[in-house]
Design brief:
Radius of gyration: 27 Å
Number of helices: 20
Shape: globular
Helix content: 25-40%
Mean pLDDT: 75
Strand order of the largest sheet: 5-6-2-1-11-10-9-21-22-23
Largest sheet: 10 strands, mixed
Number of strands: 23
Structural class: alpha+beta
């Protein structure tokens, strides 16, 4: 038996184990990945990858069965290079004509890998898509949890962006039952891998695709947006931007956290009546307010605007939260999009808090009527809006248990119409009471609404109101991140938070700001954090990389005197992870353990 065929046969047991344990990262012990399915607009690709190319004899023994019948289709093998050899993808193309859901199996001698064909819906059928980030590949339980919010089972998984796809495709535990719909641009660093994995599907949708009632136009640049939208059918259209232009990730350059350069793009999308722009991102995601330009030409949250969504809920933090961002997706989550005759839905379901479901909905509107997506958030904040309208005399009274809170919000909202809400003015006390009400605070959708409107308060951000110790943890975190996103942040009120927090996103954000805009005030905050860690009053960060970044920012800084840093370095150098103590060792070698 040829050596590679033996490898293929041995893969069966390993494959069963991988399927049982869910998403596994490929490595030398993984002999195969898949099978998976990819829709390329003309056919459904069924494929598997192997750790080494198959010789002709092994390839001839592979077959694809549908409904128990072997198909007379020859597989195609593609390779891409890796260190010490090459991976290989074996693929079959099933023409679109006559496709229906049916069991299939990739068959080798004594081994079968099964799944269910997942053809696209008919053009007038409801559409239900999950949205995947290759850096946070969905798990089967995430996709199952989205079934309720989307109104039915997920039909396919949309990938707007494809970095690191070769590490996860085929290891998610769902790819054999759901099709992948890639709308990602190839990148120079991994063209070979992506071309091998996706085959004809890579670049198959230069202007987007139609999925049931949902149109998903896409374009490489600003000039192609109107053309793509004009060419794309569908009762609902959501523009897909493979690489997020407006990216608030901690890893993004500073200029990508500023939405103003994208004013023309968002104004165009709003004028084309697009409810959403769905963008592929890095580690952090968010949902914006409805955006377009106001009378002054500046980007603003405006009724009839277009929400910008970075679908990258991978658990990363945001270094800046401008008021135009309605909801940060700062935890790993399942993201879904559905469209039927009446509604478009965007759903975000955090893994660790399934009750904290975030949904935004859009209703069909008449062509000449303004779309119902004003600055209230359209779907998520609609219950709050309705309750506020009722409390102000415009509708039915809300339930008794909500009435006091709603009246407090209504009173405070009246004052929020002014530029700032200062201490002692009507409304501030009501907000403080609302924020402090209960151990968990207000419901999640209300918390995000309050974070958007209250924490944008200039007095709060500038520290002119005593809030650092008064805010609950969730609001304090939002306020600190907003302060770190300011052009010239004042460190007075939030310095103690950075010195003591156990939230790595806050520490990362402070480090990033100190690297971009060094100042003695900000460096002093990080020194205080290390001093407290040396004294044992603040816990040492468990992440070795965060330890290293924090130590490097302080001990490699040319702006700080070495004298007060020596005792901190001596106290911490044997307590940090080997990866984290490098900057301390360099500092002591360069400056000495004692002052000379």
């Amino acid at each position: 038996m040829p050596r590679l065929l033996l490898v293929l046969l041995l893969a069966g047991a390993a494959g069963a184990a991988e399927t049982a344990t869910g998403a596994a990262m490929p490595g030398p012990r993984h002999r195969h990945a898949g099978p998976w399915q990819v829709w390329n607009g003309r056919s459904l690709q069924v494929a598997m990858s192997f750790i080494a190319p198959l010789d002709d004899a092994a390839l001839a023994r592979l077959a694809l069965e549908v409904d128990g019948q072997a198909l007379a289709l020859r597989p195609v093998q593609r390779r891409w290079p890796r260190e010490g050899g090459a991976y290989a993808v074996v693929e079959w193309q099933l023409p679109a004509a006559g496709l229906r859901p049916a069991p299939f199996a990739v068959v080798a001698p004594n081994t079968r890998w099964g799944g269910t064909l997942a053809p696209p819906p008919r053009r007038d059928d409801p559409a239900r898509l999950a949205v995947a980030n290759p850096l946070a590949w969905p798990r089967p339980e995430q996709l199952a949890a989205l079934e309720g919010p989307l109104g039915g089972p997920v039909q396919a998984v949309l990938v707007p962006g494809g970095r690191a796809l070769e590490r996860v495709l085929g290891h998610g535990g769902w790819e054999s039952h759901l099709a992948l719909v890639p709308l990602c641009e190839p990148a120079a660093a991994d063209d070979a891998a992506r071309a091998a994995l996706l085959g004809p599907a890579l670049g198959a949708f230069p202007h987007g695709l139609r999925w049931g009632l949902l149109g998903l136009p896409t374009a490489a640049g600003f000039d192609g947006v109107a053309t793509a939208v004009g060419q794309m059918g569908g009762e609902w259209q959501v523009f897909v931007q493979p690489q997020a232009a407006w990216d608030l990730s901690l890893l993004a350059p500073a200029e990508r956290g500023d939405p103003r350069p994208h004013t023309a793009f968002l104004r165009l999308c709003a004028s084309l009546r697009l409810p959403l722009v769905l963008a592929g991102g890095e580690l952090a995601g968010f949902v914006s307010e409805p955006l377009s330009t106001g009378e002054d030409g500046q980007l603003a949250g405006i009724a009839g605007g277009c929400r910008y969504v970075v679908a990258a809920a991978a658990g990363g933090g945001l270094s800046s939260l401008p008021p135009l961002v309605a909801a940060p997706l700062d935890r790993s989550a399942g993201i879904g999009l559905s469209a039927d005759d009446d509604l478009l839905r965007l759903a975000v379901l955090p893994d660790d808090a399934p009750g904290d479901l975030r949904t935004w909905t859009w209703e069909r509107w008449a062509k000449d009527a303004p779309p119902p997506t004003g600055g209230w958030g359209g779907g998520e904040a609609r219950p709050l809006r309705d309750a506020l309208v009722a409390a102000l005399g415009g509708g039915a009274e809300p339930p008794p248990e909500q009435l006091a809170k709603v009246r407090a919000i209504a009173a405070a909202m009246t004052d929020l119409a002014r530029p700032a809400l200062r201490a002692g003015e009507p409304g501030r006390d009501e907000f403080n009471l609302l924020l402090a009400d209960g151990s968990d605070g207000p419901p999640p959708s209300w918390r995000r609404f309050l974070a958007l409107h209250l924490l944008a308060d200039d007095d709060l951000r500038a520290g002119r109101v005593r809030v650092a110790g008064d805010l609950p943890v969730w609001a304090q975190r939002e306020a600190v991140l907003r302060a770190l996103g300011e052009t010239r942040p004042l460190t007075a009120w939030w310095s103690g938070v950075i010195a003591t927090t156990a939230d790595p996103a806050l520490v990362h954000a402070a480090i990033l700001l100190a690297e971009r805009k060094p100042s003695l005030d900000l460096l002093g905050v990080l020194v205080e954090r290390l001093r407290r860690q040396a004294a044992g009053t603040t816990a040492i960060d468990p992440d070795p990389l965060l330890q290293s970044r924090l130590a490097s920012t302080v001990f490699d800084s040319p702006y700080l005197s070495p004298t007060p840093l020596r005792p901190i370095a001596l106290a911490l150098k044997d307590r940090l992870d080997p990866l984290g103590r490098g900057p301390l060792v360099r500092f002591l070698e360069r400056r000495g353990s004692e002052r000379k």
